[in-house]
């Protein structure tokens, strides 16, 4: 069967020619001598045992010899397993063998490898011709062992199992930030849309797609540009990192045709709206609306200053190498049209983004001898309120003199400069989170097709990526991400996940507080602190603690350095 596909330009990135593989599998091998030994730089190196004395083994590595403990030596697989497509077939399934096989396949640009039921992918950081319609058709209707490892093979197996067993299926896509989760999720969704459409074509001319008609399959695929614009950003390790997790259900009717789709999202990184670490950017949409794709829109949004002067979005990088924000905005705007967003809804989204940018430039000053802030100038406040559709004075009063309930009455509470700054940030993050939530709901309304039965679904879970944090942030943030990912992967709903994460975080914060008090020998009465207030402060911060600078600022703002 292989020869049928060898003419396709993508085939060389899926399976090696048989003669090349046969040559590699014919190298000399001695089961008793050939082993792997640990190496601080390479992980493991190929070695040959020369002698053994008690628990010590002397091995030859290249032109040198070294002595290691016997327990550190790992077995090497016979050469017949060279670049094996499924690592569960290995005679010795140890760390060294797994690392070697993945590394060897990656060097040959074979980025997909099976490990039993799992499919491991290593990001090549370049485009390969293995996701074309032609390649997708190769995998349709094929058993997994008939074809080389590929995401399409896993997807097709899920699709066939759904149809044959009449059971819902799920795919879990996980990995660290930059591993390629977002791109692979997009390929999975596109494949299911394609295979679902093929069932429609198989029904004959009566069910064929009219020209220039937007189908449900088209709309499912076009959710990607919208969600990426509002939910993805540049990080140090990834130019298009998803800053939220999502669970996508694609529903099919009994014949295997796509019937509808719905999306759930969770853990949106709100802190990025107002703060970016060095080498990163805010969400793509802010830079897209600032591009010149629609000059009249930019004028309407009152974005007249240079981009670097908008504080909320200009704290680090302003551009991404190889990415044209103007072209990306065109794709986002067209995707809105495919998803049935009308002009007013699109305009409202863009205006809200502009309003947040103007909010970041609002200026205030402290009244002399008073704990009360007031507006220093109203130009940016007027622009922001115009974008939000509210009165300027009302917006300013909500920030400098918010109303609070005291007993049965509402009273105005004075705010100082620091409190106003926090209020602006909190409002910007809350607005963005609600806009994002509305976008997802609007997409779900469009994708909820009436008149087609929903017999089964395939769920695709794109788990939020994790970064390599410093030690303190690992203690505060990463456990939340890990527990959230674990619970979601086990099928728990969002309410259960949120409850579990919150309970775990508060318990952790309480332990941190107890440790600080004990370490510094400080009593609560001395500093006027309380255990509950400390827990509350860190709980408010939540997932917004993503870099040491922001954590330090949080610490300073709430006066906790007095403890230390």
From TrEMBL:
It comes from the Eukaryota. The keyword Ribosomal protein does not apply. InterPro entries: Kinesin_motor_dom_sf (IPR036961), Myosin_head_motor_dom-like (IPR001609), Myosin_S1_N (IPR008989), P-loop_NTPase (IPR027417), SH3_Myosin (IPR004009). One of its GO terms (biological process) is actin filament organization. Pfam families: Myosin_head, Myosin_N. ATP binds at residues 175-182. Transmembrane segments: none annotated. Residues 82-564 form the Myosin motor domain. One of its GO terms (molecular function) is microfilament motor activity. Keywords: Actin-binding, ATP-binding, Coiled coil, Motor protein, Myosin, Nucleotide-binding. The keyword Nucleotide-binding applies. One of its GO terms (cellular component) is membrane. Residues 30-78 form the Myosin N-terminal SH3-like domain. Belongs to the TRAFAC class myosin-kinesin ATPase superfamily. Myosin family. This is Myosin motor domain-containing protein.
């Amino acid at each position: 069967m292989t020869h049928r596909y060898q003419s396709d330009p993508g085939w060389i990135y899926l399976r090696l020619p048989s003669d090349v593989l046969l040559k590699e599998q014919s190298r000399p091998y001695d089961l008793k001598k050939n082993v792997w030994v640990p190496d601080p730089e390479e992980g493991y190196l190929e070695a040959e045992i020369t002698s053994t004395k008690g628990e010590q083994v002397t091995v030859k590595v290249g032109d040198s010899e070294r002595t290691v403990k016997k327990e550190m030596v790992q077995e090497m697989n016979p050469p017949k397993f060279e670049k094996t497509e499924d690592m569960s077939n290995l005679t010795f399934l140890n760390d060294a063998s797994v690392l070697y096989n993945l590394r060897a396949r990656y060097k040959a640009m074979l980025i997909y490898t099976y490990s039993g039921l799992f499919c491991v992918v290593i990001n090549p950081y370049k485009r390969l011709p293995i996701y074309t319609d032609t390649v997708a058709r190769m995998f349709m209707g094929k058993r997994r062992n008939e074809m080389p490892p590929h995401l399409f093979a896993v997807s097709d197996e899920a699709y066939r199992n759904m149809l044959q067993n009449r059971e819902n299926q799920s795919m879990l896509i996980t990995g660290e930030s930059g591993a390629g989760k977002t791109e692979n999720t997009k390929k999975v969704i596109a494949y299911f849309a394609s295979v679902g459409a093929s069932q429609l074509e198989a029904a004959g001319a009566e069910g064929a797609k009219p020209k220039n008609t937007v189908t449900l399959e088209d709309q499912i695929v076009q959710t990607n540009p919208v969600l990426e614009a509002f939910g993805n950003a540049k990080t140090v390790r990834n130019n298009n990192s998803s800053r939220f997790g999502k669970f996508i259900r694609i529903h099919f009717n009994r014949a295997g045709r796509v019937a509808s789709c719905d999306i759930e999202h969770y853990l949106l990184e709100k802190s990025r709206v107002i703060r970016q670490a060095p080498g990163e950017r805010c969400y793509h949409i802010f830079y897209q609306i600032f591009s010149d794709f629609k000059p009249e829109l930019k004028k309407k949004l009152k974005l007249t200053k240079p981009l670097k002067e908008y504080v909320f979005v200009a704290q680090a990088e302003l551009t991404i190498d190889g990415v044209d924000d103007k072209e990306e905005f065109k794709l986002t705007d067209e995707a809105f049209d495919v998803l049935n967003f009308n002009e007013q809804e699109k305009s409202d989204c863009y205006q809200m983004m502009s309003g947040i940018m103007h909010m970041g430039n609002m200026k205030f000053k402290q009244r002399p001898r008073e704990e009360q802030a007031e507006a220093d100038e109203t130009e940016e406040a007027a622009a922001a309120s115009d974008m939000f559709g509210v009165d300027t004075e009302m917006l300013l009063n909500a920030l400098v003199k918010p109303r609070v309930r005291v007993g049965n009455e509402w009273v105005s509470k004075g705010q100082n400069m620091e409190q106003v700054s926090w209020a602006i940030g909190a409002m910007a993050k809350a607005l963005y989170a609600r806009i994002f939530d509305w976008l997802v709901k609007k997409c779900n309304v469009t994708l909820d097709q009436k008149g087609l039965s929903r017999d089964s679904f395939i769920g695709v879970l794109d788990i939020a990526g994790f970064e390599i944090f410093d030690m303190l942030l690992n203690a505060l943030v990463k456990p939340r991400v890990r527990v959230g990912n674990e619970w979601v992967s086990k099928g728990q709903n969002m309410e259960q996940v949120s409850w579990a994460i919150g309970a775990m975080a508060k318990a952790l914060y309480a332990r941190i507080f107890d440790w600080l008090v004990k370490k510094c020998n400080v009593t609560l009465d001395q500093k006027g602190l309380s255990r509950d207030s400390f827990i509350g402060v860190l709980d408010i911060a939540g997932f917004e603690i993503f870099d040491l600078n922001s954590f330090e600022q949080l610490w300073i703002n709430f006066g906790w350095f007095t403890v230390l």
